[in-house]
């Protein structure tokens, strides 16, 4: 019985002397994790913007090639995108970023999603 009481006293002393993390230490770790999360969010936003820019430039190149192919085959420039996507199908799908204006095959950037450029038409891809 004496041994049992002594071992219980040892356990109580160990539990009182055992240390955990203080509130300050936990707050410091939470702040550091918050800063790291913010850095990651801003880095990812930059990557998605570059992706949109590259997609726009690639689509511009594809549409220009389709316009020139149409001109070579038909003897004139298309006056609308629908001429490239129907019939002989110079384009598989309608472009997201570009449209044709006039009878010379000029390209004009369009916005199907106003949030991409505040609803303003422009001839450049998003930067």
Description:
It is a single chain. With 127 residues, this protein is mainly alpha-helical. The chain has a domain at 61-113. It is 57% helix and 6% strand. The chain contains 3 helices and 2 strands; from the N terminus they run H-H-H-E-E. The chain has a two-stranded antiparallel ribbon.
Number of helices: 3
Model regions low in confidence, pLDDT < 50 over at least 5 residues: 117-122
Order of helices and strands: HHHEE
Number of strands: 2
Approximate helicity band: 55-70%
Structural class: mainly alpha
What is the general shape?
Answer: rod-shaped
Looking across the biggest beta sheet, what order are the strands in?
Answer: 1-2
Q: If you average the pLDDT, what whole number results?
A: 75
């Amino acid at each position: 019985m004496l041994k049992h009481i002594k071992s219980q006293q040892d356990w109580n002393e160990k539990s009182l002397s055992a240390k955990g993390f203080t509130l300050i230490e936990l707050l410091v770790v939470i702040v550091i994790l918050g800063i790291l999360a913010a850095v990651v969010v801003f880095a990812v936003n930059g990557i998605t913007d570059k992706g949109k820019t590259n997609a726009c430039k690639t689509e511009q190149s594809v549409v220009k090639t389709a316009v020139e192919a149409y001109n070579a085959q038909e003897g004139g420039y298309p006056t609308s995108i629908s001429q490239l996507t129907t019939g002989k199908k110079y384009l598989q799908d309608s472009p997201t970023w570009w449209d044709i204006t006039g009878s010379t095959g000029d390209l004009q950037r369009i916005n199907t999603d106003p949030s991409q450029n505040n609803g303003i038409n422009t001839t450049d891809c998003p930067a």
